[in-house]
Amino acid sequence: MSEVSPYAPARSAVPGQTLPASLGPLLLDWLPRRRWFAGKGSPLSHVSVVAETELLPLPASGNQPGLVHLLVRAGRAPGDCYQLLLGVRRTLPPHLAPALVGHLHHGPFAGAAVYDALHDPRATGLLLEALRSRARVGGLRFEREGEKPLPLDGAPRLITSEQSNSSVVYGDALILKLLRRVTPGVNPDLELPLALAREGCSRVPAPAGWLTADLPGEAEPYVLAVLQPFLRGADDGWQLALARLAQDRDFTAEARALGHATAEVHLSLARALPTVTLGRAQLSQMVEGMCERLDAAVQAVPALVPYADGLRSAYTALADLASEGRTWTAQRIHGDLHLGQCLRTPDGEWSLIDFEGEPSRPLAERRLEQPAVRDVAGMLRSFDYAAHAGRPWPPGWADACRAAFCTGYAEATGSDPRTDPVMLRACETEKAVYEVVYEARHRPDWLRVPLAAIQRLSAGATGEVP
Ligand SMILES: Nc1ncnc2c1ncn2[C@@H]1O[C@H](COP(=O)(O)OP(=O)(O)O)[C@@H](O)[C@H]1O
Ligand SMILES: O=P(O)(O)O[C@H]1O[C@H](CO)[C@@H](O[C@H]2O[C@H](CO)[C@@H](O)[C@H](O)[C@H]2O)[C@H](O)[C@H]1O
């Protein structure tokens, strides 16, 4: 790719401007069908532009793609902000057919195809080149960490599995994650891996570059994308666990090693970033938040109604402990740890990815210091998920993994999460409630999995980790 910046001058962004009449209806239909679109459930009636940056001029003739970077606001007012990279071509080649958003009906580009350009190697190659050259286009700032050259020769491909965001792999060397629902402010998916890399923690791929946007009227930039080394040949913990289950085989050695890896990341985070002590006042605030989220979940998913009181008792038990004078240390954590966020490289080592936190929570909440047991609870839930994913349900498999994970965690930190059963139950309960809402919204067929845990946890089960 050329050293010369290939970008057209940015068109000015007009916040609140309604999209060109012809593109608006296409997005109204296309956006709600994306896995990453959070506003499902209520009809989408309006999409407006937050910022528009032309990266390649729109095609006047021939079959050269035009490329537009868009931040749009969509969903119930004020609406969430989404990042889109749209290509425009007079004729869409067959390999891009699955990326079609629709055809423009009016204006100078009538008849042209609009498509999700993350499927187009020409467009994604351009993003990598922009990161390499630290390009500035309109409000977009492409950044690169350090002076180490980026390998630029790998063919880009979009990861096809449905995720909360969209990721493009370049050869087998780099992976660029484009965040889909974006907010201004520091994003933990960049903040924490950078802090860990600078702390010397090797359990997390170190960010190699990132994309931010400065928008008029916003005090803080939006973090839009993060570039990391691609862990070649790595298997994710979820697939590994399912494969073991299918062969009726034990997973405890891996679970224990995962406990070690999680503990190492926690120890590094506690060194790299501030820790705080949670006393009575902070705990009561935390429990209040847990109860509010439970109330909202019960409203959203009526299947929770019979269990609400039992679930709430897990939270109030925590508040009771705090009022007796018990305190906890809180620190920055992963925030949405599960088997799918753990990658095992061919040398047998575990790495953790995706530090964004729970996608549905506000950014400020995701950046709060929290008891590290919260991540432990996420992993314990994940072993339970894996065991329930296949048939028949293997009694004992999840318990053995849960125990092994805690053992590994205790070996590395000197502190066994099982010695704090009240906090563990409260955090597991919170995670299961979150999962019920997540599954109801995204994968209703899976709702039975967290609901099984809800029954168990609402009945006051403690000490379920043998
Ligand atoms: N550094 C990496 N090396 C190899 N594969 C990765 C890496 N980072 C992410 N992946 C793969 O991409 C998928 C999506 O990444 P993730 O950060 O979890 O995105 P999302 O927020 O969309 O879930 C992961 O499940 C994993 O399979
Ligand atoms: O990976 P994401 O950041 O997109 O996380 C969201 O989706 C996850 C599912 O892909 C969801 O995780 C839940 O399902 C997993 C199995 O698919 C299971 O291992 C996890 O334990 C369970 O929580 C995650 O909660 C959600 O935030």
TrEMBL record:
Stretches assigned to the Maltokinase N-terminal cap domain: 30-120
Reactions catalysed according to its record: D-maltose + ATP = alpha-maltose 1-phosphate + ADP + H(+)
Pfam family, one: Mak_N_cap
Keywords assigned by UniProt, alphabetized: ATP-binding, Carbohydrate metabolism, Glycogen biosynthesis, Glycogen metabolism, Kinase, Nucleotide-binding, Transferase
EC number(s) per entry: 2.7.1.175
Pathway noted in the entry: Glycan biosynthesis; glycogen biosynthesis
Similarity remark: Belongs to the aminoglycoside phosphotransferase family.
Subunit comment: Monomer.
Protein's name according to its UniProt entry: Maltokinase
